Amino acid sequence: MKRIVIFASGSGSNAENIISFFREKPDTTVAAVLTNKSSAKVLERCDRLGVPAFYFNKPAFRDSDTVVQLLKGLQADLIVLAGFLWKIPSNLIEAFPDKIVNIHPALLPKYGGKGMYGDRVHQAVKENKESETGITIHYVNENYDEGAIIFQAKTDVVPSDDANSIAQKVHQLEYEHFPKVIAKLLS
Known about the structure:
It is a single chain. By secondary structure, the protein is an alpha/beta fold. It has one domain: Formyl transferase, N-terminal domain (Rossmann fold). Helix content is 39%, strand content 23%. It is built from 7 helices and 7 strands. It has helices at 13-23, 41-49, 58-62, 66-73, 90-95, 118-127, 163-186, and strands at 2-8, 28-35, 53-55, 78-81, 100-104, 132-139, 149-156. It has a 7-stranded mixed beta sheet with strand order 3-2-1-4-5-6-7, covered by helices on one side. Helix 2 (41-49) links the parallel strand 2 (28-35) and strand 3. The radius of gyration is 16 Å and the shape is globular. Keywords: Purine biosynthesis, Transferase.
């Protein structure tokens, strides 16, 4: 049985999509969801879906091996960042080499780096009059959004799009592709 642990900071729509996808797969499970926000909506989703969820604070994440030990205890085969906004510390990357993946709401290397997430990315795509955007699934390294690219999918951006409509197009790509890419990585 392959075991996924998801890190999320927000509403958890991608986390729920991944959990639902793998409920149909007998050889893989989402072992837990971890969050850095005690008020994150993802915790409500986990409660409703019956998935264990854990909150951790900055010192547990950055200044100790608490989160690494939790992940080892959960026997994580793959760590999936789904809307998780903190930079991953080196001790976690070293403990799980090539086992941490992230999804970014743009076609990296464009619109990546510190502070580029969510609506900020979509607004920048609109302001720069891009004709396309999309998603990038990549391995996590010690720098924001610079790990090796695993997969990209594109969508058109038309002049009438605003940041919200761009976000909707990107979310559809996330929901369609992220679970399938995770499954492929685990096979």
